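Anyone have tokens for DNA-binding transcriptional LysR family regulator? Sequence:
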Amino acid sequence: MKTPDLIHPDFARINFRLLHYFRVVAQELSFSKAAQRLNMSQPPLSLHVKELEATLDTQLFVRTTRSVALTPAGRALLRDVEKLLDQASSSLWHVRQLGRGAAGHMVIGAVGTAVWGALLPSLRHFVAQVPGATWSLNELSPTRQIEALQQHRIDLGIWREAQSGLPPDLSCQLLGKENIVLAVSSEHPLAQTPHVPLATLAQEDMVLLPAQASSLGAYLHNACRQQGFVPRISHQVNEPQTALALVADGYGVTLLPESCARIAWPGVSFCALAEPLPANLYAVYDAHTVTPVVQGFLDMLRDEQGA
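Reply: yep, here.
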């Protein structure tokens, strides 16, 4: 037969409510004040505390007719209970925020030029509204973003003019509007032209991004063809900074989103096109697997864009 010390107490009977009652009494050191704070009568509160002491087989309070004091065991339990209840409250609040789309982490794939446009201001605005939301960024081409979205390795994809040629299993939401501009050397004859017809560039050496599927480069190549010419490419580069460096030294002209004009490159002038050529940013997602925090971000974008 087991001795009493070896009998395992039924701790499953101790729930958060019981521990909360204990904490309030321990903080007030008065059953009457604790009962008032808990909006209950004193006798049931005393019974709950006695139930806790019986389950633990330990006296937690020293009671006299005039005072209530914690025993050493009660003081030790109070320290642990405060940590436990605070941690539980924080965890439950976090879960509630997740369920409301008000917290969580977003893994975002984006083209490099997106960081010069509306992406970072939109993320900053969202995190300011939803302090529990976090995000991380992976720079990926549109083709790799589509693959990552379909394999659920990212939550959102960000690239330009994504509404055209999007796979049927993906959806998109407008993130920010901007147009393509022409970047030329400050010494170039077109540098002082307020609005340059795209067809004018048929005779220019051009520095362009690669014409990969769904990429900005492919979009610009197609725009030139729609104006009746094939771009005469002198240099093909992957980064806007590389294109601007070549343009500054007179090795050609380039077409870039207007937000790239924020890169104050010496020796480069930016000119508007006579025919506006949109370079809008879109957030691309899988509507069947969208998480609450991503849905919250998309809802914010819809409110901002009015769509």
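The chain has three domains: 4-99, 105-177+281-305, 180-273.
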